[in-house]
Design goal:
- Helix content is about 40%, strand content about 15%.
- It has helices at about 1-5, 25-45, 60-70, 85-90, 115-125, 140-145, 185, 215-250, 275-285, 310-325, 335-345, 350-360, and strands spanning about 20, 50-55, 70-75, 95-100, 125-130, 160-165, 175-180, 190-195, 200-205, 255, 265-270, 290, 295-300.
- Strand 10 (about 255) and strand 11 form a beta hairpin.
- Helix 2 crosses helix 3 and helix 8 (about 215-250) packs across helix 10.
Length: about 375
Amino acid sequence: MTAALLGSKEKSSGGQICGNMTSGGTESILMAVKTSRDYMKINKGITCPEMIIPVSAHSAYDKAAQYFKIKLWRVPVGPDFRADVKAIKRHINRNTILIVGSAPGFPHGIIDPIEEMGKLASTNGICLHVDLCLGGFVLPFARKLGYPVPPFDFSVDGVTSISVDVHKYGLAPKGTSVVLYRNHELRKNQFVAVTEWSGGLYVSPTIAGSRPGGLVAGAWAAMMSLGLEGYLENTRKIMEASKRIEKGVRQIPELFVVGRPDMTIVAFGSNVLDIFEVNDIMSSKGWHLNALQRPNSIHICVTLQHVTVTEDFLKDLTDSVQTVKANPGPINGGLAPIYGAAGKMPDRGMVQDLLVDFMDTSC
């Protein structure tokens, strides 16, 4: 069902789209990276693999690079905050196995130029993964509603794999995602087969050995319950709410919207005040926004819960901006000093150590 939303019925897809359920977007991405690595080793003899991603791509690719011993190149995005295809091209070499695009990217809700990236991947005989973890259950319907959605799925030549979360806008239980491949030749490299174990013959499709069937059933039930019309109506509501919020943010003189959002994420920053202090004030009012860097900004990911409160959000945001403007400085218990200091530290290894120490003491 998910594949049918993402171009599997198009002739250009090749008619062999296949995939598996995973526990979430990170596992889907890990599987796609592992599959690309092994496929390129078999077909091109690459033993020192490298992959190239925009700085806006999800941190799960860093995790995959560490897990699977792949050299990772993060390249700057263009002035429009989309993947810079020319910059990616400059990093391609004989060890490149994979390039990555997002539709949209998590930080700014902007779709990378997937068509151009597909041509680049095809020309160089490498894999292209498209991260649709956020957009998979919105973009197909936004296109039907008339929004200007550029090509992003298996209808694009060169796309070899796609990840899409059912537990986000698919409204399935948490812990359900799908990883898809253009054909079975690719997907076979995802599997692990063991022939010499004393416990018998063993083969496993994903990272987890034991997988919860209840979550898979829950995802199926959610999709069957909502149906195409349900997802279409949900998309209409959240896209309209997103556009109202984007328009409202642009009308606040102290703020700027990062790029031109394509979907349901609106990121914004400021050149005249500390946006992280604004975030702290918004948190005190009950809003939970994500702090971003490069540039310093915050974003709202619009869901059905926001549809009826867009005016409340914009009023609280306007009030928070004025509060910070009149009384600049961190509030007690706020996170602005932490984000501000971390962004200014030139030694990123020190920031990494702080993150690891924090995790070690909190889990």
